[in-house]
């Protein structure tokens, strides 16, 4: 039995969807498990020439792998069925492939309505915060108690612990910079986005093989706090990188890569494979900058910056630099 994990190391939108989609194709997993978040997430996936944006549904469905929305997730029934319909209309076969953990929680209509006026955090207004709040206040509703979800329900313990040949890809949502404990509270999401969350979803720590961390070569954040320095270069970066929310279409605030927090997040999540995406965007911007040791460093070119990043990270980590449309 083994488990690989893909998780975001910044503030979401690091292109985790691309990495899970790629791994689902090449690594013969029996299951893909989404372990946190709800329809606040938007995973952009290019499959056989078509663009898809998934919110709830794990990327394994594109390759016919049993895909489970885990107990650490919250589900909007309405958005779930909309997404099922969209994928089926696009020819993706979900029959017998898509499941929801019985003990996952539900985002109700009331949760959605409650969030419509939210401005303090700048949430996606998808009802995630209220659903997690009610879960922890022991007032929530579990998937097992929703009649229309019955055909999709699965018992994680029975599914994972009765078969020696299980190989799970665990797919994270958001990023560790938005983690409720490790992010810049209160500008965080309501779930646990890091490695620990995987084990809370019923995966044994003994099965762990690779932890893939995904980052961009610059940073973006969407929400109410001020993140972007007031400089025209970041307007241009946003345009070149097409940095607009996959779920809400909001412009993402941009900034240079912060290697200090990246190093911290790599360490806290035991990352051994690192994908640094969107290198082509800085290439078109013709600027190579990042923060390290709280200083802004200006590099001459791509090679200098990538070599520097590599030299600062542990040699145990395999690093892949990738362009926007590239495979890893
Ligand atoms: P919530 O998760 O909708 O409660 O939003 C809390 C914070 O997380 C806000 O700053 C959102 O913009 C951000 N957020 C939530 N999900 C994502 C995501 O998938 N990508 C990027 N930011 C996200």
Characterization of the model:
The chain has 328 residues and is an alpha/beta fold. Helices cover 27% and strands 24% of the residues. The protein has 10 helices and 17 strands. It is globular and about 60 Å long. 46% of the residues are buried. The model has no long low-confidence stretch (mean pLDDT 95). The site of inosinic acid has 21 residues, from helix 4.
Bound molecules: inosinic acid
Instruction: Outline the low-pLDDT stretches.
Output: none
Strand order of the largest sheet: 9-7-5-2-10-1-11-14-17
Radius of gyration over C-alpha positions, nearest whole angstrom: 19 Å
Task: Give the topology string: H per helix, E per strand.
Answer: EHEEEEEHEEHHEHEHEEHEHEHEEHE
Number of helices: 10
User: How confident is the prediction overall: mean pLDDT?
Assistant: 95
Helix proportion range: 25-40%
Characteristic key phrases:
binds inosinic acid; 10 helices; nine-stranded parallel beta sheet; alpha/beta; 328 residues
Short overview:
By secondary structure, the protein is of the alpha/beta class. It has helices at residues 16-26, 77-89, 109-115, 128-136, 156-160, 195-200, 232-241, 259-268, 279-285, 302-312, and strands spanning 2-8, 31-34, 43-47, 50-54, 66-69, 74-76, 98-101, 105-107, 153-154, 167-171, 208-216, 218-221, 253-258, 273-277, 288-292, 295-299, 318-321.
């Amino acid at each position: 039995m083994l488990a690989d994990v893909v998780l975001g190391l910044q503030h979401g939108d690091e292109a985790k969807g691309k990495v899970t989609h790629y791994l689902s194709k090449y690594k013969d997993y029996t299951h893909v498990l989404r372990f946190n978040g709800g329809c606040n997430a938007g995973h952009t996936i290019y499959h056989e020439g078509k663009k898809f944006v998934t919110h709830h549904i794990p990327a394994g469905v594109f390759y016919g792998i049993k895909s489970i929305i885990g107990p650490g997730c919250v589900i909007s029934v309405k958005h779930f069925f909309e997404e099922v319909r969209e994928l089926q209309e696009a020819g993706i076969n979900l029959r017998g492939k898509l499941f929801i953990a019985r003990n996952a929680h539900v985002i109700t209509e009331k949760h959605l309505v409650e969030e419509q006026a939210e401005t303090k955090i700048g949430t996606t207004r998808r009802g995630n915060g209220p659903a997690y709040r009610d879960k922890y206040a022991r007032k929530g509703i579990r998937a097992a108690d929703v009649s229309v979800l019955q055909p999709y329900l699965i018992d994680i313990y029975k599914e994972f612990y009765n078969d020696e040949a299980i190989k799970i890809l665990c797919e994270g949502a958001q990023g560790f910079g938005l983690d409720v404990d490790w992010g810049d509270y209160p500008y965080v999401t309501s779930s646990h986005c890091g490695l620990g969350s995987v084990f809370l979803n019923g995966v044994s720590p003994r099965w762990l093989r690779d932890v893939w961390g995904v980052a961009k070569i610059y940073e973006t954040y969407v929400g109410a706090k001020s993140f972007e320095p007031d400089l025209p270069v970041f307007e241009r970066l946003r345009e070149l990188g097409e940095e607009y929310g996959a779920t809400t279409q909001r412009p993402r605030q941009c900034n240079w890569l912060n290697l200090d927090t990246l190093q911290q997040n790599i360490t806290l999540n035991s990352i051994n494979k690192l994908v640094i995406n969107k290198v082509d965007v800085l290439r078109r911007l013709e600027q190579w900058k990042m923060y390290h040791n709280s200083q802004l460093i200006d590099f001459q070119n791509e090679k200098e910056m990538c070599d520097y990043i590599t030299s600062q990270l542990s040699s145990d980590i395999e690093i892949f630099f990738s362009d926007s449309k590239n495979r890893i």
